[in-house]
Design brief:
The strands form five sheets. The chain has a six-stranded mixed β-sheet with strand order 1-2-6-3-7-17, sandwiched between helices. A four-stranded antiparallel β-sheet has the order 11-13-9-14, with helices on one face. It is 34% helix and 21% strand. It has 13 helices and 18 strands. It has two domains: 287 residues, Aminopeptidase (3-Layer(aba) Sandwich); 123 residues, Alpha-Beta Plaits (2-Layer Sandwich), CATH 3.30.70. The protein is of the alpha+beta class. The model has no long low-confidence stretch (mean pLDDT 97). It binds ligand BES and manganese (II) ion (2 copies). It is an enzyme of class 3 (hydrolase). GO terms for molecular function: dipeptidase activity. It comes from Splendidivirga corallicola. This is Dipeptidase. Keywords: Dipeptidase, Hydrolase, Metal-binding, Protease.
Length: 462
């Protein structure tokens, strides 16, 4: 460790409690992007970040209104000759529902066993805010190694639709050498990793209509199609007994990995027994012929995210419902195209419907799959940063989740992304009792600082 690194780490160490307190203040703001009831809170979170960017030393921080929630942009340009790192993150969070399954209120953060419990603690407020604190640590110790730009959005959890427009309209402003994102996970604190692949997404809602009104299930039952029964049959037929998706053309563009690539992927530490134990399941489930790491990392899948219709109140009501609904997502891998898969699904799903019902399919958001490079200077800088801070070379992994903007950064700005995440699967993102370890939060800040230093150094000798 050189003198400047020691000074920065001392700064982080002596400001640790304040860094935690500020994150807790941010977590108190219920910035749920999906629910219009929280619109003002989403705007409040954007303003909070703008103020914190300025306080951390940004020359400029602005709120950009969009057709949806605002984008926060900030920058500090110290020397046009130096490389520029553009940090992307999101300040919106998933809905906290169901509230009754939380052990403490989702927007009243609680620290227990060295962890911060709150919606967004890890995804992505905790992980995004590490970058603002790393930035502050560097500006305060006069050790900023790269120019810095921040683009923090409020619509990631609802598909980043308006961000695409913002990126297209602000290409010069966003000009950089690399995009840096902390919004993924590592294998474990003993096995740090860098995400090199994300799945894409196609998300749709379906509505099946039977009779024009809810009917008495005795008077009409057996003689009129029940749309809930029909919807279940249609959904069941979307996968065969081997776990293959039956939509014609679905696999046509799926990139098959070579034997070597599969072997490399399966070398990552993975303990099936603790995986099952953590989820309290007796058996795993999935596409035949693939391991769990392959099933989530490099194979596409289809899942029902929600299904409803008929009577779900207390007691029993005898009703043959008029309508049934479901929200269905497909996770995609290279080189599947989100729009094309949405189209294939829609055609196939409609063709499945018997004449006794009518079917409506409405697409929601989507996103393209992304693979990032491991032979870039940015990847090497991230790898070195982990080595220095965690004492281990990080393992490249392919994650199952999606961050739609990553593919867009490549196609719109021609920029590569480094996915330097610090979350753990056990942080329970999107679930009740989401949390983030204070160790990861602080260690992550140190690792981010090291990334900037290695990136500047490696760029110089390029
Ligand atoms: N941070 C996650 C994505 C993620 C989590 C990637 C863990 C890798 C590991 C992100 O906030 C997210 O939840 N994305 C959504 C996509 C979106 C279009 C709703 C997702 O994956 O469901
Ligand atoms: Mn996220
Ligand atoms: Mn998320």
């Amino acid at each position: 460790m050189n003198k400047s690194e020691m000074e920065i780490n001392n700064f982080i160490d002596s400001n640790k409690q304040r860094f935690i307190d500020e994150l807790i203040d941010l977590l108190r703001i219920p910035s749920v992007s999906a629910d219009s009831k929280f619109k003002d809170d989403v705007a409040k979170a954007a303003n909070f970040l703008k103020d914190k960017l300025l306080a951390a030393g940004a020359d400029l921080a602005e709120i950009h209104e969009t057709a949806g929630h605002p984008v926060v942009y900030g920058e500090k340009i110290i020397d046009p000759q130096l490389p520029t790192v553009l940090v992307y993150g999101h300040y919106d969070v998933q809905p906290a529902d169901p509230y009754e399954l939380w052990d403490s209120p989702p927007f009243d953060p609680l620290i227990k066993d060295e962890r911060i419990y709150a919606r967004g603690a890890c995804d992505d407020k905790g992980q995004m805010y590490m970058h603002i604190k790393a930035f502050e640590a560097m500006t305060s110790t006069n050790s900023l190694a790269c120019n810095m730009k921040f683009m923090i959005e409020g619509e990631e959890e609802v598909g980043s639709d308006n961000l695409e427009h913002f990126v297209r309209e602000n290409k010069d402003k966003l000009n950089a050498d690399v995009i840096l994102i902390s919004d993924t996970s590592i294998i474990s604190n003993d096995n740090p990793s860098i995400t090199v692949g994300l799945r894409g997404l196609s998300y749709l809602e379906v509505e099946v209509t039977g009779p024009n009104r809810d009917l008495h299930s005795g008077v009409y039952g057996g003689a009129v199609a029940n749309p809930i029964n029909t919807l279940c049959e249609m959904i069941s037929s979307l996968k065969d007994e081997n776990g293959h998706i039956t939509i014609p053309g679905f696999y046509d563009k799926v990139e098959e990995l070579t034997k070597d690539e599969r072997n490399a992927l399966n070398e990552a530490p993975f303990d099936l027994a603790s995986y099952k134990k953590e989820l309290d399941i007796d058996q795993i489930h999935g596409e035949d012929g693939y391991t769990t790491l392959e099933r989530v990392g490099v194979r596409p899948t289809l899942d029902v995210n929600g299904i409803w219709g008929g009577y779900i109140g207390e007691g029993a009501k005898t009703v043959l419902p008029s309508k049934a609904h479901a929200k269905i997502s497909m996770r995609l891998v290279p080189n599947q195209d989100s729009e094309e898969i949405t189209k294939l699904f829609t055609e196939h799903f409609k063709s499945l419907a018997p004449e006794s019902v009518k079917v409506k399919v409405t697409p929601h958001h989507g996103g393209q799959p992304a693979v990032t490079k491991t032979d870039s200077i940015a990847y090497k800088a991230a790898s070195k940063a982990f080595e220095d801070a965690w004492g281990k070379t990080p393992i490249p992994t392919r994650d199952g989740g999606s961050i739609p903007i990553v593919a867009m950064f490549k196609s719109e700005l021609g920029l590569n992304t480094v996915l330097m995440g610090f979350g753990l699967d056990s942080d329970a993102i999107h679930s009740p009792n989401e949390s983030y370890g204070i160790f990861n939060y602080i260690k992550g800040i140190e690792t981010i600082v090291l990334f900037h230093q290695h990136f500047a150094r490696l760029k110089k000798i390029e």
